[in-house]
Amino acid sequence: xxxxxxxxxxxxxxxxxxxxxxxxxxxxxIDLKEVRIVGDEPTQIADTLNTLRRTYDxxxxxxxxxxTHDDITADAVGAxxxxxxxxxxxALRRLAENYANRGLxxxxxxxxxxxTPEGASLVDNPVSVAxxxxxxxxxxxxxxxxxxxxxxxxxxxELPTGVPILSAAIHCPWPEGEIGGPLRDIQKQHPGVAIGxxxxxxxxxxxxxxVARSRDAGALxxxxxxxxxxxxxxxxxxxxxxx
Amino acid sequence: xxxxxxxxxxxxxxxxxxxxxxxxxxxxxIDLKEVRIVGDEPTQIADTLNTLRRTYDxxxxxxxxxxTHDDITADAVGAxxxxxxxxxxxALRRLAENYANRGLxxxxxxxxxxxTPEGASLVDNPVSVAxxxxxxxxxxxxxxxxxxxxxxxxxxxELPTGVPILSAAIHCPWPEGEIGGPLRDIQKQHPGVAIGxxxxxxxxxxxxxxVARSRDAGALxxxxxxxxxxxxxxxxxxxxxxx
Lengths: 243, 243
Description:
Strand order of the largest sheet of chain A: 2-1-3-8-7-6
Number of domains of chain A: 2
CATH class of the largest domain in chain A: Alpha Beta
Oligomer: homodimer
Order of helices and strands of chain A: EHHEHEHEHHEEEEHEHEEH
Largest sheet of chain A: 6 strands, mixed
Structural class of chain A: alpha/beta
């Protein structure tokens, strides 16, 4: 994924699209492999997009497709693909119809939202009409979270979904430092399962959330059982030590 | 910045460090130019870090320096710099003292948190002792937000701060599509100021938050005046049209 916008790098806007896409992809069995955030720099956007689209099966971008001068994503995508950018007839029709229905002037600024690289297909926008678009393996979506989410629902129909990743969360009442050794052994014995360890603390007590993830239900259950057993034995050891 | 962790790419954890660093850097007058998020893949972490540290003045990483098997950042940073990774004597001393004081066992897993690439200097951790570290222009911090923030405060003392970016926010009660044209002209006339346009809507009404940013107070004021004038004139035009 490529998130675009100066406002993300200045801290003015806190991104909410990366986490959403990550969740949607995980449920669909698609691995999100990398995210980059860049500002409103045409060359950096184009170069980054070229790297990502050549490295991964698909790329989703967010941001920079509105009506104002700082919305430069369509041009940057065109530059990346060496394609001319012009008004997409169907996008123009939808926008013109929408503004006519609402009795609003179809300004030159609003016409900008119809611009796509030549040959792009549209990604429907049920929230605010102005569409996203697809060029080859790149999906170009809006940055406003409600619009991004609605567009992403449409993108998902075009992506080959995989076997969803199953996950099992195991609460461990002991801190990471007391289970790190045995947990590493369990990870070694269950190579088909990715085991994540997330330290937390509350009221001065340290505990750990363990999450096992796999596409294989049987492997996941075996790892879960091993982790639960380890957590139980750690508790018994602590009790025996009087901890 | 480089944020590290499978949990960020699966959506299980929503990153809170990127936005924080962006805000802290902006206040300090440091430009955040790019962020990447990668998973717990040693080669990808090392390759990405090598690209970023050669491209930018400084790199800050988050995540992957705890006591468990999935905490691989120290090794990946060592690989990136082709430096051996071993227990840092001062880090080991701090950790041993801390666990002794708390009457806790200094397990092998906990000793892992003392590992740094050779020659690293430590980044103090006032929250939970286990330090981050610096190698050359790379600062390696924890992923837990409270710890990341405390470590970042210490990193800021080592960074050359620039002239802070000043910003002016102008509320525009009209939608982006009605001001996009004149706003672009203003941007052209004020090249030393970056003007961002952020569409919002509430109760079905569309409006726009405009933000002008510059390191030059005079240039910023001139742009602000031009934008406010444009917003006012747009309102008068609307009133004249009976909109």
